[in-house]
Structures are given as C-alpha cells and as structure tokens.
Amino acid sequence: MWPSTPSSVAGDPLVVKTPTFEYYGFVVYMVSLAVFGVYIIWAYLPSEMLKALGFTYYPDRYWALVLPAWLFMAVLSIYFLNMAYIMYATPPLDSPDAFYDPNSNIAPGELPEEHMCHEVGGIPNVADIPISVVNKCLY
Fold first, then answer.
1. What is the phi/psi pair of residue 26, to 5°?
2. What is the pLDDT of residues 33-60, one digit of tens each?
3. Which distant-in-sequence residues (6+ apart) come within 8 Å of 132 by Cβ?
4. End-to-end Cα separation, the chain, in angstroms
5. How many other CB atoms are found less than 10 A from the CB of residue 63?
6. SS3 at position 82
7. Rounded to whole angstroms, what are the CA distances from 135 to 47, 56, 113?
8. Residue 101: which of 128, 121, 139, 119 has the closest Cα?
9. Helix/strand/coil for 73
10. How far apart are CA 12 and CA 109, in angstroms?
11. How far apart are CA 138 and CA 116, in angstroms?
12. Share of the chain above pLDDT 90, in %
C-alpha cells in the first residue's frame, strides 16, 4: 500500500526533488518585468511627474532611445558575425574535408559498390556512404 505523503527515505521512488531552475526562472522573469516597468516609467513620464514621485536623479532621456537601438544592433551584429564565422570555417566545395571529417564513419569493403545501389537482404551496419558510391548510384 502506498503512503499518502512522500517518505523521507533517500532511496524511496516517491520522493521527488523540485528543480530550483523553475524558481530561478520565475525570479528572473519578475525582475525583468520590474526593470522593464521602471524603464517605461522613466522613458514616458514627464520630468515633473518623476520629481513628484521622488526621483530627483535619473539619466537623460537620450539614453531611452540609444540603449534599445544599441542592444538591437549588438544582437544583429552577433547574428552576422556568427554567419560570417560559419562561412569562414566551411571548407571549399572541392576540398575533401567537405566530405570527410574526423567523425566520419566510413566502412570500406563491407558491401560491393554495385550492390549498394540496390536493395540487398538484411540491414547493413550504420556507416557513411562514400561520395563516389553516391555519385555512381545517382548518376
């Protein structure tokens, strides 16, 4: 019979520890929502209302436009720099590195090349097919 409350025994499968990431995510969400609210109040309320609320020092309103524009351009440049790096790191089309790398799993001599183009009984081992065999089968 199963107990109605989880046991405190360490090996008991009923004891479920709640991951703390959920709590961290909730706190980050609430803090970011509060920061965004303060930003909106600072950016849109007139100076007289801010002084009436007790805010005597705050940054110039110029930064209310510059910071989002700067952040947008920073994120956009990260995407373009990532694409540029990927293009730089990609080997040319005529390079053998475009077909083979250290992680290639080529199994030579398991099946004759002429039988690779047609179904043969059984399931072959998992391996990469050499480009010469692919070209021979397709063209």
1. -65, -45
2. 999 999 999 999 998 999 998 888 888 9
3. 113
4. 67
5. 13
6. helix
7. 72, 74, 11
8. 128
9. helix
10. 52
11. 11
12. 39
* Structure-block tokens of residue 72: 């947008």
- Type of residue numbered 119: E
Q: What is the pLDDT of residue 33?
A: 98
Quickly count helices (H) and strands (E) in the chain: 5, 0
- pLDDT, residue 118, reads 60
Do 58 and 42 touch, CB atoms closer than 8 A? yes
Residue in this structure with the two tokens 């709590």, named with its chain if needed: 23
As given in the structure block, the two tokens for residue 28 are 């980050």
Q: The pTM is what? A: 0.49
3-state secondary structure of 91: coil
- CB-based burial, 24-61: b 16+ in 10 Å, e otherwise: eeeeeeeeeeeeeeeeeeeeeeeeeeeeeeeeeeeeee
The answer to whether 127 and 107 are in contact (CB under 8 A) is yes
Stated length of the chain? 139
Cα–Cα distance, 135 to 41 (Å, whole number): 64
